[in-house]
Each structure stands twice: as C-alpha cells, then as structure tokens.
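tool_call predict_complex ligand=flavin-adenine dinucleotide
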Amino acid sequence: MQAFSYVSAKSVSEASAILAQEGDNAKVLSGGTDIIVQLREGRRSAHVVVDVKAIPELNELSYDAAAGLTIGAAVPMHRIYGDAKLAALYPGLMDSATLIGGTAIQGRATLGGNVCTASPAGDALPTLIALNARCVVASANGTREIAIENFFAGPGRTVLQKGDLLVAFKLPAPQPNSGAAYLRFIPRNEMDIAVVSAGVSVQLSADKSTFIAARIALGAVAPTPLFVPEAGAALIGQPVGAVAVNAAAEIAKAAARPISDMRGSAEQRKHLSAVMTKRTLEIAIERARA
Amino acid sequence: MSRKISVSATINGQENEFLCEPRQSLLEVLRDVLNLTGAKEGCNNGNCGACSVLLDGVLVNSCLVLGVEAQGRSITTVEGLAGDELHPLQRQFLENAALQCGICTPGFLVASKALLEKNPNPTEHEVRYFLAGNLCRCTGYDKIVKAVMAAAEEMRAKA
Ligand SMILES: Cc1cc2nc3c(=O)[nH]c(=O)nc-3n(C[C@H](O)[C@H](O)[C@H](O)COP(=O)(O)OP(=O)(O)OC[C@H]3O[C@@H](n4cnc5c(N)ncnc54)[C@H](O)[C@@H]3O)c2cc1C
Ligand code: FES
Ligand code: FES
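tool_result ok
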C-alpha cells in the first residue's frame, strides 16, 4: 500500500484542522472497510490518514424520547444492532445494519462511512432518508445540519467541502403507530450489492386505518440514493391497503432513472423499483400495526 | 512519511510492542512482524474472511485494519484459541473433517469462536448466516457447519 502518515484525532477540532489544512491529501478513516481497500488499490491517495474513531462525539449512541436518536458517524454496525432498545425502536435501521457485509465487516463498518462513500447502492442510505435523518457536519467555522436527502452530489460524491467532518446523525423519535423497513434485491441470499433497494417509513392513524405520513427512498436507480417525496405524499389520507400501496409503488417506479450495468438492466431496475417499494411498505405497515 | 511507529497491544493475552508503518495492515503486522502466520491472506479486500481476528472481542478482517490502529487494543488470533489442549472448535473441525487445504480454517475458527461467545446455542441457519463472510473453496461448508454445531453442543455440556 502507498505510504502515508497516521493521526488518531482526539477531538472534532483537531480532525477538522487537519482536514482543512491538508484538503484532498487527507483521508478520514472510520471503519476502513471502503477507504483501506481504495488506498490499497490506488483508487484513492493520501498523505495523511485521520482516524476519527477516538473522537467522543463520533462514538455517541444515545436515545431520548424527546430529542430522538443520535448516532455518531463512527459507530459501527454491530453496536447499532447490538442495542436491543434501538432494535425495537428503529427496525428499519436494523434491516440496513444487519445487511451491510458479513459479521466481520459489521464489526468495523460505520454509518458515517457508508454515507460518505456515497455509493448509489449504499444500504444505509434509503433507510436514513426514510427515517428523516439529519447530518451534523463540523468545520473550522462551526457546525451545521444537512438533511440526508441533500447530502449526496453524485456517485461517490457528497456535499462535504474541504475541512468538513461528518460528526453524527440525528433521527427523530419514532411517531406512534409508525413503522419502517429496508429491503434490497440481490441475486443471491447474502453478501452482494443491491440491484435495487427501497427504504420506507409510514405513520398510521390511531385506529391504524389511514396513512398520515410516509417517506419513500430508492437505492441503485439514480446517481445518488433517490428520495421520492411524491410517492410518500400519495399515501397521506388514503386507507391502508393494496390500492394505495400499489399507487405509491408506481410513483416510485416512475421516478427511478436507472442505468443498465452488469448487475441488471434499466428495465429490470424499473420493474424492481415498484416491487421493492411495495414489499417494504407492506413490512413497514405490519410493523406500524404491531 | 513511512516512518515506523511503535505500537503496544495485547496479543493473545500477552503484552506486545512492535514497530510498523502506518500503511501496513494488521494482517501484515501479525504475519510479517510478529510471525503469527495463523491468520491468512486470501483476498486482501474484506471478502474472504481468512484473515479474521478478534479486536477487543469483536470479529474483524485484519486485512481491513491498520496495524497502528491496534494501539492499546487486545487482539485474539487463531494462535490464541488453544490452551494446553485444542479448543473444542479446533477438535471438532478435525473430527468432522471440516477442512481440506486449510487456508480458510483459522478464519472460520476465530469467527466461530465469536459466534459461540455471543450465541452458545445457535441454529444451523444462524451458524450459516454468521459465517457468511468466511469463504471456503474446498469443503462445501456442510462439514464446517456440523463441526461448529458439535463444538457448541460440547461447550454447552461443559458449561
Ligand atoms: C466485503 C465487503 C462487503 C461490503 N458489503 C456492503 C454492503 O452489503 N452494503 C453496503 O452498503 N456496503 C458494503 N460494503 C462497503 C462498506 O463496508 C460500507 O460502505 C461501510 O459502511 C463503510 O463504512 P466504514 O466505516 O468502513 O468507512 P471508511 O472506509 O472508513 O470510510 C469510507 C469513506 O468515507 C469517508 N469518511 C468516513 N467517515 C467520515 C466522516 N466522519 N467525515 C467525513 N468523511 C468520512 C472516508 O474518508 C472514506 O472516503 C462492503 C465492503 C466490503 C469490503
Ligand atoms: S484476506 Fe482479509 S478478508 Fe480476505
Ligand atoms: S479448506 Fe480449502 S478453502 Fe476451506
């Protein structure tokens, strides 16, 4: 592997100072499951690698019924799904965390890394959009929040600027009678990259008969994860059932603008966009009713 | 830039200090610096699990960890499994013929140890799911799964 120096940053300000000074010559190291491979294969280069796992704010994992959930950008998947309370509150997030790689990848891979890698097929991304996550970003000028659906600029690109560090995600506390789910379509049972994926959340009325809110996002059908607000909006006020679900699935399909590649054709991805939206909505509804 | 850094870590229960370059993976450090050649390099990109080790008790691929990240941490490799006698997993792998060429075996043993620590009574499905990141080109997996189930049973009986 190419030579670089290594810093384990102890604070947000230390990390962002190095990132501001070194710019593209510095690379953040979180769980390393993307960046170490990229550095080794020469797809990325670095003079300095900044390990962010020892920064307290990036390791926070805390829930509060009023403030919701804070997940530090460097919290690995196994900590997320290892927390029984969170698993009950955010089943959609657990769908994603347990899907990313195998057990050993989940021991290291972080949510911040998945988001900053910005693969259109990243398995946490549609879920975070469905769950209305906000990204806390720090720089020398202070911190700001960015809605997750506005975080992606293209395949492998985010809106982060020189000197920016992703610190944490903030997820609102789940509403009553709500549910969320994530599914990906892959040609085998395990360990593959999504051909198409969908992340959805729904909130039902107190008698669970009517949709009162919904968010729907697709993966791998556009240069970035694709938020389809009109598909969620179409559910609002509708009776819970196949008619409304199918209508939302058709809207999601219409919004998808996939390419053909070795994983699947554009036509297959279009078709799957509706199928995956429908299947995830059915799971989310079941969870909202439970 | 490629200056060596001094790292102290606990490896298989023993305090250790070693020198490594930041670009060296933990796998390279284990094999080339510390002469612990149990962990194997299959793919060097996270896909095969032959390099599996425990880092503070958590299963990781050592090819995707930098050696310098081991500072202050505790690492268990396959060399740390046996005491005076083989670990039940090691013995059951032998008794069930769960290896042929053996390249994947250290990774499967370490990963299976991580599984049984978390879940002493796994179903066959849970074993297969947990070990999905470990590849074997020889055995067809059935004997590996059988060996893990047998070791789990043996360890439960002793517990
Ligand atoms: C075998 C294998 C299987 C995989 N399977 C899947 C899968 O099923 N689904 C999936 O979605 N992905 C998968 N991946 C990809 C990868 O594991 C995930 O994208 C993972 O979430 C990346 O997280 P990380 O912490 O390892 O990121 P890192 O490699 O540490 O970082 C990724 C990128 O984000 C940047 N970065 C990280 N943290 C920050 C921060 N706080 N601020 C600014 N920039 C930051 C890094 O500089 C780097 O460019 C797989 C990878 C491997 C090797
Ligand atoms: S060598 Fe590390 S996973 Fe294959
Ligand atoms: S025994 Fe040869 S790869 Fe598993």
